[in-house]
Amino acid sequence: MVKVEPHDLLKISSINDLITDELPKWAQDIFPESLTVVVRRSEIVDGKIPVGIRGIKREQRFATFVLDSDIKEVITPYQLVSEKAWQNISDERKMLPAVKALPAVAKILQEYKWGISGSVGFELATKTNSAKMTSDLDLVWKPNGPISREGARNLLKKLNQFGVHADLQVIQGNNGFSLEEYSQSKSTIMMKTLSDPILVKNPWNK
What we know:
Elements: E1 9-11, H1 25-34, E2 36-39, E3 48-54, E4 61-67, E5 73-75, H2 77-82, H3 91-94, H4 97-100, H5 102-108, E6 113-116, H6 118-126, E7 137-142, H7 149-159, E8 166-172, E9 175-178, H8 179-184, E10 189-191, E11 198-200
Parallel strand pairs: 7-8
Antiparallel strand pairs: 1-2, 1-5, 2-3, 3-4, 6-7, 8-9, 10-11
């Protein structure tokens, strides 16, 4: 069994490896270019890994499954950072605000275990033009321990000084929450789990 986590990118050999009756037209058009799916936060049952297909538009998301045995490669958000994948794309794509910010963001987060997700991570992994001039910088972070709301606000202020909106999805085991939401909350925040989202007062409790 291949070990995968939410936000991991999985490469497969063919569109036929997707476990689905029919793909929407946009997915049929775009998916063969990358043959890459994103692991969704849901239970793995009978070797069927919950994944999603990304389109160019925000509303273009399609949930499906792939078999563990059909995975050809796993690319993690953290791997994109360790390999400095933003250096390996065209000069034109390096000028996208969310990509252009990455070298400076990497310096700020150099002591953190962090990764790149969202449209930017997908583009860095697949070399397909999935990010846009208006794309946010979606990051994931596996913390060593909790930080205060003030600490979260200070960190986000540093990350958001480069002309692009950046947020960290804090990974707690199989769960995740937005550092931005945590930094602004005065009561409960939403925690994403393998089943349904839940509201919690202290998201750092494992």
